[in-house]
Design goal:
9 helices; alpha+beta; 43% helix; 5 strands; 259 residues; globular
Length: 259
Amino acid sequence: MKPVVVGVFKTRSAAQSAATKLVPLGIAKDKINILTPDVTQTELAQLPTQAAEQPGMGKAMGATVGGAIGLAAAGTLPAFLGSLLVPGVGPILAIGLAGGVLGAVAGGVAGGAMESSTTEGLPEDELFVYEDALRQGHSAVIASAANDQQAQAVRGALEEAGAESIDRAREMWWVGLRDAEKDTYQAHGRNFDEDERYFRCGFEAAQHSANRGKSYEECRARLGDRYPGDNEREPFQRGYQRGRAYFEALRARALTSKH
C-alpha cells in the first residue's frame, strides 16, 4: 500500500500554496488533492446538488455531489473523502491539483463506521483528527507518495509550508474537550489526573471508524487487540462511553441542522 500523507492548514489558500510545493518532489499532480470547507456559493452552484440530499452518504461514494469524487483521479482522494462524511462537517470542496474542482460533499448525514475501503491508506485512529480540523474551518492537503522515502519528503515540505502536525492537531482537539470531561468524571468522585491516560485512550477509541456508534461490548474483542489490557480498565471503558456520547451528540446536531 502506498503511503498517504496529510497536512492540515488554517486556510484554503495556504493549503493550495503548499500543494504546489509537492510537485517538484516527484508527486504526480493527480496524486495531490485538497479538501476544504472554504466553499463559495458560486462554487457550490456550479455543481449538481441532488446527490447531497440522499441519506446514507457514508455507505457509497456515489452519494457525493454529482458523483464527482467517485470519478476523480485514482489515488488518495476518494478513499479519504468517504471517511470524512461525518456529523458536524458541512459542505466540503474537493480540489484536484491536476484538474481544478473535482466536486463537493455535504457532511452531517453519515453515522456509523465507514467501510475499510473508504479509509485505505490512512491510519483509522487519526481520521477523527482530520475531520475535526475540517469542522474547525481548516483545509487539508492529501498526497499519495510512491514510497516511504518520498512520503518523508512530502511531510517535510508540508511542515515547512506551515502544516500543523497530526500530534498537535490531536492535542488541540483534546484540549477543547478536556475540561468538560474532567468535570464530568470527577463529579462521580474519581481522580481524572490519575486516570486521564486511560480515559482519553477509550474516548479516542470510540472515534475510530470501525467503532463509531457501537457499544463497548460490540467492540470488545477489537479493542482488546488494539489496547491489550488497557481496554479492561474502568477509566478506559468510561472514556469509551463518553467518546461514544460525543460522537452521537455530533450526529444529533448535524441531523437537527438539516431540518
